[in-house]
Design a protein that fits this description.
The protein has about 260 residues and is mainly β. The chain is built from 3 helices and 19 strands. Strands 1, 2, 12, 13, 14, 15, 16, 17 and 19 form a 9-stranded mixed β-sheet that branches. Strands 5-11-10-9 form a 4-stranded antiparallel β-sheet.
């Protein structure tokens, strides 16, 4: 089994970036979901309500994030890694209320123009503590602005199995994983409790319940019935549809595509 893909999503619910290597940190891969867009009520927004966010991509540059329209890369805003405005703001992510800081007036204006709302971009400072669900994360782990846990892993075989049941195959990026692992049986990840990727240990803590975001085509931002309609026929558990596993990290260091994956438990 090998690590075949690494993904980060620097701004929650905007486009992802496929990397060849990445650094692990307690709250997720370096840069992963450290930034988030909030509305006038300081509540996070996502593609669930604003599908056009799927058409906005992000690049990691030396001087900061480049946030741009996929259809017109010349229409962009540059976001310095060090916040310019740096105003403290209390934000809401699902049921969590946590501390963030504003980033720049330029970013706010650009995002507001693209999405037709009064928006602000915020970043999570290192001092912020947002705890993963202690029923599953056993070591008091912090998490970024991700929905609930620092990492998400999916096997390539699980997607291949799903695509074999769909009229039109879909891409892995619909599920927004951090790690894609190849060389397994479909849904082998359901049985894992502890794995190593390279020489770094991870705990597999909880299945990932999927939402309507997976039904948004990242190329067009159009919503459909799939893949939830098909997944519901064989991946339903109670009122949840499961695909992928939430994971926490035990060791910090560098991972790279091609690293060997070993199941410890």
């Amino acid at each position: 089994m090998i690590l075949s893909e690494i993904w980060v999503y620097p701004v929650k619910s905007l486009g992802g970036i496929r990397l060849s290597k990445a650094l692990t940190e307690e709250r997720g891969l370096q840069y992963d979901r450290r930034w988030m867009i909030i509305d006038e009520e300081n509540v996070f927004i996502t593609q669930r309500a604003y599908p056009k966010m799927a058409l906005i991509d992000v690049a990691l540059l030396e001087e900061g994030l480049k946030i741009f329209l996929r259809a017109d890369p010349h229409d962009f805003v540059l976001v310095p890694y060090k916040p310019v405005t740096a105003l403290p703001v209390t934000v809401k992510v699902w049921d969590d209320t946590t501390e963030a800081v504003t980033v720049s007036d330029d970013a706010d204006a650009w995002l507001s123009r693209q999405l037709g709302l009064d928006l602000r971009l915020v970043v999570m400072p290192d001092s912020t503590e947002r705890k993963a669900d202690p029923r599953y994360a056993q070591h008091d782990e912090n998490v970024s602005f991700a929905d609930g846990f620092p990492y998400l892993v999916i096997s390539q075989a699980s997607l291949d199995d799903l695509n074999g049941r769909l009229a039109q195959p879909i891409e892995m990026r619909r599920f927004r994983p951090n790690f894609v692992i190849s060389g397994t049986e479909p849904f082998a990840e359901d049985q894992w409790k502890q794995i190593t990727i390279g020489n770094l240990r991870f705990e597999v803590v909880k299945p990932c319940a999927r939402c309507v975001l997976t039904t948004i085509d990242p190329k067009t931002s159009e919503k459909g019935a799939e893949p939830l309609k098909t997944l519901a026929t064989y991946r339903r558990n109670g009122n949840k549809i499961l695909f992928g596993q939430n994971v926490t990290v035990q060791d910090f260091g560098e991972l790279k595509v091609g690293d060997r994956v070993t199941v410890l438990e």
